[in-house]
Amino acid sequence: MATSLPVGRLLAVVMIIVLAVAYVVIQLVRPVPAVAATAHTISATMPGSASPLAWPVHGEAAISVEGTGFLATHGAQTPTPLASVAKLMTAYVVLHDHPITGTSPGPNIPITPADITTYQQDLATGDSVVSVQVGEQLSELQALEALLIPSGDNIASLLASWDAGSEAAFVTKMNTAAKQLGLANTHYTDASGVAPGTVSTAASQVRLALVDMKMPTFRHIVSMAQVTLPVAGLQYNVNALLGKDGIVGIKTGFTTTAGGCFVFAARTTIGGKTKTLVGAVLRQFGTIAQPSALTSAFDAATTLITSADHALAEATVIRKGQTLGQLSAPWTTAVGMQATRTVTLVGLPGQHVTTTVVLANKIAAPVPGATRIGTAVVETGDQRVTVPLVTSRLLPAASLSWRLTHL
Asked: Closest by alpha carbon to 335, among 394, 398, 402?
C-alpha cells in the first residue's frame, strides 16, 4: 500500500523545485558580463644614434622619403617667392587636364603670333626663354620638355593659354589645385614663377613634387639631361646636378627676389634599402665666396642629401601577427587582437613613434577568429599608418554550465 508524503514535506519539495526553476530562469535571462577590450601599452622610438640633418644656414628647406610619408622641415615655412619652381604646378595642371602616357607626344600645340610676342617680351626682360617661331608646332610632350628642362618662361605662358584660354584662367586652376592638394601658404599669380607674388613654402613644394613624381611623363622629363626641340634645337637641363650625388630630378629656380631655389629627387640608401629622397631648398643667396645663388642652392641640397644618408633610419615598429590588445571574458581565457600587417617607418634616430589602439565600443560574444575588432594608428611626424586588428581565435559565448554556476 503506497504511502504519501506529509503535506509539509511535499510543499518543501515543490518549493525547492520552484526555486530551482526560478534560479535557472533568472540565470539564463540575466545579462552576461560584457566582453572587455583592452589595449596594450606600446612605446617605440626610431633606432640609431642621433645624427642631425645638415640644413642650410639660411632660407627654408624640407626633405621627405618617397612612398613613406616621412617629412622633415627647417626654417619658418612662410611663403617665399618660387621663381621657376612654380613650373612644378604648371606641369601638374597641364598633365592633369591633358594626361599623356609615358613618352606619348600628346596633341600638337601651334605657335601663334601672340606666342612670339610673349617670347620677345620675356627675352627683352632677361627671362629664361625657349626660341619659337610662327607655324611651328610643339607636341604637348615637347612643350613640357621645354618647360621643365631649359625652363622656358614663355613656354609656361604658351601652355597656360593652350590649357585654359588665358594665363589668368590657368592661374585660377593652379590655385584651385594647390588647395585640393593641401599646399599650405601657397599662392600663384603667374604660370612661370617670375612674378614675386607666386609664393609657397619648402614643405608644400615637396608635397607637390611627390605628387608630380607619381606621373611617369613628368618623372621621365625631369630625369633628362637634354632635349632637342624643333626650332630651339638642343637644350640642356638647368639642373646641373642631374646624375651627380644620386640626383634624378626635379626643378631649379632663380630670380633676384626668390634667390636660388632647388627642388630635388635623389636616390640614397636607408636601412640597407634604396630610397628616393624628395626635398627642397628655397631662398638661397650668393656670398662673396660663392656669388651664384643657384649654386648656393645646389650646395645646400647636396649637403642635405649627404647628411640624410647617415641621419635617416628605417625600422619595423609593428609586425604582422603582433598582439596589440586583448578581449577578456570571465568564462574563457583572453583572446589576442593581432596586427594584420607589418609597419615599417622612416625617421630620425630617437624620433618617437606613437601607436594608438582604437577598439570597438560594444563587443558581444561569440566573436569568431579573424574578426576585425579594432584599429591601430601608428604615427611619427607626418607618417600615419592604419592597421586593422583581428581576433587571434574564437572567443566563445558563455556556456550553459558557466551561466548556471556563476552569480
From this structure: 394
DSSP 257-274: TTEEEEEEEEEEEETTEE
What's the topology of domain 33-46+317-405? Peptidoglycan synthesis regulatory factor (PBP3), Domain 2 (2.60.410)
pLDDT for position 270:
85
Question: Given this model, what pLDDT does residue 404 score?
Answer: 75
Per the listing, cell 622656358 goes with 152
Contact 341, 363 (CB under 8 A): no
Domain boundaries, the chain: 33-46+317-405, 60-311
3-state secondary structure of 132: coil
The per-residue pLDDT for 4 is 62
pLDDT of residue 23: 47
Cα-Cα-Cα-Cα torsion 215, 218, 223, 225, nearest 10 degrees, comes to 170
pLDDT at 186: 98
Common-topology check for domains 33-46+317-405 and 60-311: no
pTM given for the model? 0.84
Q: Which helix (H) or strand (E) holds 297?
A: helix 293-311
Q: What is the DSSP string of 337-397?
A: EEESS-EEEEE-TT-EEEEEEEE-S---S-B-TT-EEEEEEEEETTEEEEEEEEESS-BPP
Asked if residue 151 lies in contact with residue 252, where contact means CB atoms within 8 angstroms, the answer is: yes
Q: What is the DSSP code (8-state) at residue 187?
A: B
What are the beta bridge partners of residue 249?
265
Please state the three-class secondary structure of 52-73 as a single string.
Answer: CCCCCCCCEEEEEECCCCCEEE
3-state SS of 76-127 is CCCCEECHHHHHHHHHHHHHHHCCCCCCCCCCEEECCHHHHHHHHHHHHCCC
d(C-alpha 300, C-alpha 388), whole Å: 41
Task: Assess contact for 332 and 395: CB atoms under 8 A.
Answer: yes
Give the chain's residues under pLDDT 50.
20, 22-23, 25, 28
- pLDDT of 16: 67
Q: Assign domain 60-311 one CATH number from 3.40.50.1000, 3.40.50.620, 3.40.710.10, 3.40.50.300.
A: 3.40.710.10
pLDDT score recorded for residue 271:
79
Buried b (16+ CB within 10 A) or exposed e, 307-331: bbeebbbbbebbeeebebbbbebeb
